[in-house]
Amino acid sequence: MRPGRNEYGEIKIHNEVIIAIARRATLEVEGVEKIASGFRKGLFSFLGRKKFFRGVAVEREGEQEVRILISLVVKFGVNIPEVVKAVQENVKRKLEEITGIIPLGVDVEVEKISSEGPGEVLESIREKSKED
Questions:
Q1: What are the domain boundaries of the chain?
Q2: Contact, 75 vs 36, CB < 8 A?
Q3: Which of 34, 66, 98, 129 is least buried, going by the fewest C-beta atoms within 10 A?
Q4: Per-residue pLDDT at 55
Q5: pTM of the full predicted structure?
Q6: What pLDDT sits at residue 128?
Q7: Superfamily of domain 4-131
């Protein structure tokens, strides 16, 4: 059943619930190190019109239509396009299963890549190229 109204009353699912589901679904994917702390400036035009928390943003377009943006750090050596696709599929699937909401899109920003050493994080290629 989707959010909205049923014979017993209204069903509303807050953005914080959607964010929590998206975060957990993202972290379940092999190759994801962690969710990044924020977003690159100017990356996503809707950041002024949505709810975001620690690297996950939700934009509502009506009660049952949402778009998700996730900023993450991937593990060194993984195939980034495959990890991103797996994140998109898992977030979409979990949101549908748990809330009945089918996201209009799950956009993923790979902000950083972790090194093999514990706790070390390499800046994104864009940041690296600035040093050269």
A1: 4-131
A2: no
A3: 129
A4: 86
A5: 0.76
A6: 47
A7: Cation efflux protein, cytoplasmic domain (3.30.70.1350)
